[in-house]
TrEMBL record:
The keyword Hydrolase applies. Residues 30-78 are annotated as: Disordered. This is Beta-N-acetylglucosaminidase. Residues 202-527 form the Glycoside hydrolase family 20 catalytic domain. One of its GO terms (molecular function) is beta-N-acetylhexosaminidase activity. InterPro entries: Beta_hexosaminidase_sua/sub, GH, GH20_Enzymes, Glyco_hydro_20_cat, Hex-like_dom2, HEX_bac_N. Keywords: Glycosidase, Hydrolase. It comes from the Bacteria. One of its GO terms (biological process) is carbohydrate metabolic process. The active site is at 345 (proton donor). The keyword Hydrolase applies. Pfam families: Glyco_hydro_20, Glyco_hydro_20b.
Amino acid sequence: MRWNSPAILVGGAATVAAAVTLTVVAWPDATPPDRSAPAGSTTAPPDGPRSEASSARSDTRPAAPTPSGSGALSKAPNVVPSVRKFEAARGPGWRPSGGSAVVIAKNSGQLADEGQLLAKELKIDYRGAVAAGAGDIELALESGKQAGPESYTLTTRDGRVRIAGPDEAGVFYGTRTVKQSVRADGAIPEGVVQDQPDRPQRGLNLDIARKYYTAGWIENRLREMADLKLNQLGLHFSDDQGFRIASDTHPEVVSQQHLTKAEVRGIIALAGRLHIDIIPEIDSPGHLGAVMAPHPELQLRNVNGQHTRGAIDISQPAAAKIVDDLLREYDTLFPGPYWHIGADEYQALVVSDPEASFPQLAAAAKKKYGANAKVQDLATGWMNDRAAVVLPKKKQIQAWNDGFFAGGVVKADQNLQVDYWTGKEIGARPPLDYLREGRKVVNLNDEFLYYVLGQPNDFVYPTGQRIYEQWTPLVLRGTTPVPQKYSKQILGARFAVWGDIANAQTPAQVAAGIQLPLAAMSQKVWNPVKPSLTWPQFKALATKVSG
């Protein structure tokens, strides 16, 4: 990301308001909602991002769970994201009391962390592996009854709650539903929730290279993400402006403000307890300014001897060595299943004739890949080679879409996942090009999901309202969805924060600015149906459950 990102046209929506209803309405992924921006004033906090629309009036707020003795059918819990399926029942539901406790079912001892956290949040006892009694919440691992590892069933009946799932992650998400429902309404409604995410990858991408964030700030974001049932945090920690994690192999590249490895291990440990995978990213062969600052001999220069911003000379073996040293070092630090190798915006490929401008790259391409090879082939080979460094540990490798070129004699490894952010960069192609190749794609649409500090290059801070009303995972570029038949290839989405103008906002302002956009995105990647709440209702609920 993205110093030469071109202008983005951001349009609003103004259509006829839909009637308020709590009925779940089927909404195919490929069809954005036809809804209006609700009426309400907009105010801007001092020095902060543009605010969302005003909160809902009290007469339009979602209904609370059925009170004891009413005899009416219950309504689904008020949570963000909304649950996928709810079987209503008559009864008082469950609310925490002095005698309530969290307990762990037989053969479910792995859920101790989840149980202790929920008990602390609800301010009730944790009793561990004992039989559930009146007023208790029981957590259980049960295989074979749910659709996937992140699914869960939450049953509220006879004054007790039971959360069961095939894996710890699903049970954890059930505890998030309990926490939010109690926060919103003081209770869990009587009935049965059956829930699971629509997309397997759901998260936040954070540029800590251009703007430094403390470990504590990052950990607070992890806690907020977990409550929204998000499961990925991308850490872009190397760029032209900074390298933000301590290094043993190349300490000379590390910025003065950086995270220690102990701090990173703490972040990784917390993320693990919250069922969030960390995706580390060392972007190359572009965006390597901080790495090259103490190694100017590796700087890419054109035929006239002029250096090219952020670009390393990939014709030099020493260039591959320093990047691979770092990849291997941090591959050990980050034990998760994902790695991001960047590959975007290599400036050698934005000129009209790369072979004439960079003859050393052209010669290296021909030497390695044959007489018909060009600079783009050398760049593609670089991407494949960097992926091969971390593949032995069976990582799932991701790269930015503008690093995948059409034609050429070298093809990008078919197993690389595409993080689609733009169709406007040199080398970038429309989303369908990648999908037709059979590639798996993660949505980071720069129209809706890019929070670029300072709003350069016509970027505009995205709002939760716009994501909630106009975006779905199928909207990969601009505002137009790809055909529904490609839905299974779109693995999910991440909301991205980029530090292009690092001092444009304080860390506190960034945290406040991304809160509602993250909530709106979480709704769309978890539950594929058209939301039943209006934006003011959703905003009021999201604000309440995040308190």
